[in-house]
Structures are given as structure tokens and as C-alpha cells.
Write a structure and sequence with these properties.
The chain is mainly alpha-helical. The chain folds into 2 domains: about 50 residues, Arc Repressor Mutant, subunit A (Orthogonal Bundle); about 140 residues, Tetracycline Repressor, domain 2, CATH 1.10.357.10. About 75% of the residues lie in helices and about 0% in strands. Helix 6 crosses helix 9 and helix 7 packs across helix 8. It starts with a helix and ends in a 13-residue tail after the last helix. The relative contact order is 0.10.
């Protein structure tokens, strides 16, 4: 890809990010194109469709926030419990930076199949990450026998979702740190207490 084409592509993605982060903005392609200094046709040439743009935007956000290497580092952690806590900390710290876009996609989802697909793809990836590490925790006998890895993955997926952040941080005034501590406390409540810990005595 030529440097000019890449610059144009990044300009369109940034314009889409900025538009989607504005409460109530419908993020129309013509507005995104105007903000990026290109034509609507140029947006289609680069991304093929609105769905292609939204899907590429999610990947662009990951790149800008260096999410992929951080997830790779977590997956390389040999301690699955520590890896789970790292995932929750990452989720809590990442959400404020992408929350506006996540809410916009969620708001558009009922009437925009492309927005719905982009949002659902990200949520599916998040749940898959929780499920992967929780399966290892379960195999190692560190998960409470009252719960399955799948059930706990569902709970943590829902607890860390943009809607939970919106209710607790934005509406109820929790700090991001408090939100993170709640997620960690919730996750630990499903684990078998480590031998010698205060909760095990």
C-alpha cells in the first residue's frame, strides 16, 4: 500500500473514530469523508462498505492503543489466574478510551447491521479471551466447583461490557479504579482460595 493511500486510509479511520465518539452523531459516511478531506466514493474505495469501515476502525483502535501486543503478553503468562486479572485490568483501563465508540456502535446496532456486526465481533473476542484462560483455571482445579468456566466467562464478559461501565462509572460516578477493583473482586469470588491466604483460613 502506497504511503499516500495509507495516509488517506488512516485519515478516514480517525475521522470515523472522532465522529462515533460524539454523543448522538450518526456518523454518516458523507460527514466522515468531509472530515477526512476525501469524497464519499473514496471511503468506499478504501473499505468497500460501511461494515468494512467499522470493522477496520476496530482494528485501527487496537493498533493505536497497542492492544494486540498487550493481549499477546497476557496469553504468554504461565499463571492463568494472574492472566485473568491482567485481562480485567486491561479491560478496565481500555474502556474509557473506546467507550464513546463502543456506545455509538451499540446505539446504531438495532438499525445498522454493519454496526451490529462490528460490535458483536469485538464482544465475541472479549468473551473468548475470558473463556480461554478460565478453561485452564478450571483444568488446574482453581475454579470453584459450584461454577463452570463457561458460566464465569459469561459473568465477567457481562460485567466488563460497555453497558456495565456506562451504568457504574458514567451514571453512578464510580472511578475507573473502583470499577477495576470490582471486576477483580468479582473474578476472585469464583476461585478456590489459595492455600494459606486470609480467605482460606
Amino acid at each position: 500500500m502506497s504511503s499516500k493511500r495509507e495516509r488517506t486510509r488512516r485519515s478516514i479511520l480517525q475521522a470515523a473514530w472522532d465522529r462515533l465518539a460524539k454523543p448522538g452523531d450518526p456518523a454518516r459516511l458523507e460527514d466522515i469523508a468531509a472530515d477526512a478531506g476525501v469524497t464519499r466514493q473514496s471511503v468506499y474505495l478504501h473499505f468497500g462498505s460501511r461494515g468494512g469501515l467499522l470493522t477496520a476502525l476496530v482494528a485501527h483502535m487496537d493498533d493505536e492503543l497497542e492492544l494486540t501486543p498487550r493481549i499477546a503478553e497476557i496469553r504468554a503468562n504461565p499463571d492463568p489466574v494472574d492472566a485473568l486479572e491482567q485481562m480485567l485490568r486491561l479491560s478496565a483501563s481500555y474502556e474509557p478510551r473506546i467507550h464513546g465508540v463502543a456506545l455509538a456502535l451499540l446505539r446504531l446496532a438495532p438499525t445498522d447491521p454493519d454496526a451490529a456486526a462490528a460490535f458483536e465481533d469485538r464482544m465475541r473476542q472479549r468473551r473468548g479471551g475470558f473463556a480461554e484462560v478460565l478453561r485452564v483455571i478450571e483444568e488446574q482445579g482453581k475454579l470453584s466447583p459450584d461454577w463452570t468456566a463457561r458460566q464465569v466467562a459469561d459473568v465477567l464478559w457481562e460485567a466488563s461490557a460497555p453497558s456495565s461501565y456506562e451504568h457504574l462509572v458514567v451514571e453512578r460516578g464510580w472511578s475507573v479504579k473502583t470499577f477495576e477493583r470490582w471486576l477483580l473482586h468479582l473474578a476472585r469470588s469464583f476461585l478456590v482460595p489459595a492455600s494459606g491466604s486470609a480467605s482460606a483460613r
